[in-house]
Design a protein that fits this description.
This protein has nine helices and 15 strands. It has helices spanning 3-29, 156-163, 189-205, 224-233, 262-274, 276-282, 293-322, 359-366, 368-390, and strands at residues 37-48, 51-58, 64-69, 74-79, 82-84, 98-105, 111-117, 121-128, 136-144, 166-172, 210-214, 238-245, 256-260, 334-336, 348-355. β3 (64-69) and β4 (74-79) form a beta hairpin. The longest helix is centred in the C-terminal third of the chain and has 30 residues, at 293-322. Bound molecules: zinc ion.
């Protein structure tokens, strides 16, 4: 592989994330007379070798201004009176025509998005009205100016990344000497989580374009940090930790989904700063050695803010599908400081499938049929999340 271009690509991706997160922060500080349009998402897809499509999800119809610049080739889109309503993470998506995306709120109230290109393109833009579940959209199509363009600045790794499968890391909680919660009938959390994880793995692996990685395949003790490490080694796109709850009151029941809280993120950033070699890897090739620790910590926090936003969205999609087959303990995704959710660059959720301390739920969790239904619901939630991010 080409280490320079890889580092550069990661740097660009990260910087885009930071600038999007930064734009989010600045948007809180400005006050405008007319309430701004909310930009709620940016989705990028490669329709063909000669066609890239960028879709902006908006709270209402907007005016926009699009123009092309060269040296280097880029497309600038100004959205009038618009603010990003949350951390938008489109930065990791590249296509053969587009190598990056940057955005920032401007003092004028406009929101500027810059698409960095590999070569000159013919841009076309149009707006779409709400349709079914989709709201207002601005669509920008980029067409190659000549057919079959020679690949420019596309490293082997970028090409592989575009084609690579979606890798889902599944983490069966507890294991080995740590049984986790134990039900009245003796059901052990570590066995239930492994059984459900294996069922999800089968569903994932039989779906084209998906591959599952388990953090443990058998009844084995694995420290929390090594679970995340294994997922990272496999370049997992999502991380899912499975658990079963327990409470002194046996009537407590229902599933819950957790994402990392910002407090957790901050202390993890601090820990990573202490291990500079890890931290420089995690923030994508930016060496922290010559930088102020505060700046480094802010950079990591911004990256993690975007990841937590992703995790919350993933969590709510999974929760919605779990709600179709199970009682929910909490209707909204909860946030807490779980060690296994602290990877700054991998959306991660923890699922408390049910309460082993509740006799009916213990019975459910022992049933292979119920485990299968739960596995299917969780995978449906994951697919729904990925679909909402990738299609028009
Ligand atoms: Zn647990």
């Amino acid at each position: 592989m080409n280490p320079f271009s890889t580092a550069r690509r990661l740097f660009l991706q990260r910087m885009t994330r930071f600038s999007i997160a930064f734009a989010l922060l600045s948007s809180h500080q400005s006050s405008l007379a007319a309430s701004p349009t909310a930009l709620t998402g940016i989705r990028i897809s490669q329709a063909s070798d000669n066609h890239t499509r960028v879709v902006f999800d908006l709270s209402r119809n907007i005016e926009h201004n699009l123009f092309a610049l060269s040296d280097p080739h880029r497309i600038v889109i100004d959205l009038s009176n618009t603010r990003a309503s949350k951390a938008l993470d489109a930065s990791s998506q590249t296509t053969n025509l587009m190598k990056g995306i940057r955005s920032a709120a401007r003092d004028s109230g406009e929101y500027r998005v810059v698409l960095d290109l590999n070569s000159k393109v013919r841009p076309r833009s149009f707006t779409l009205q709400p349709d079914g579940e989709k709201g207002y959209r601005l669509v920008v199509d980029l067409h190659a100016t000549k057919l079959n363009p020679t690949p420019i600045l596309t490293s082997q790794q970028e090409r592989r990344k575009r084609k690579k499968e979606m890798i889902i890391a599944i983490d069966p909680g507890h294991g080995g000497r740590d049984p986790g919660a134990i039900g009245r009938k003796g059901t052990r959390e570590k066995d239930v989580t492994l059984a459900v994880a294996k069922k999800i793995k089968i569903l994932v692996n039989k779906t084209p374009g998906f591959r599952a990685v388990l953090t443990r395949e058998r009844d084995q003790f694995v420290v929390l940090r090594n679970r995340v490490k294994k997922a990272r080694e496999h370049q997992a796109d999502l991380f899912l930790s499975l658990h079963a709850d327990s409470f002194h009151n046996p009537s407590a029941r229902g599933a819950s989904v957790y994402a990392l809280s910002l407090d957790g993120a901050s202390s993890e950033a601090a820990r990573l700063i202490a291990q500079k070699e890890n931290a420089s890897d995690l923030i994508g090739g930016i060496s922290l050695d010559d930088k102020d620790e505060l700046i480094a910590s802010v950079l990591l926090d911004l990256s993690q803010t975007a990841t937590i936003q992703d995790s919350l969205e993933l969590g709510s999609d999974v929760l919605r599908h779990l709600g179709k087959m199970s009682r929910l303990n909490n209707r909204a995704v909860q946030q807490a400081e779980f060690a296994v959710l602290k990877a700054p660059d991998m959306p991660s959720i923890l699922i408390e499938t049910a309460f082993l301390s509740n006799p009916q739920e213990e019975k459910n969790l022992r049933s292979s049929k119920y485990q299968q239904k739960m596995a299917q619901a969780i995978f449906n939630g994951i697919k729904a999340h990925l679909k909402s991010r990738q299609t028009i």
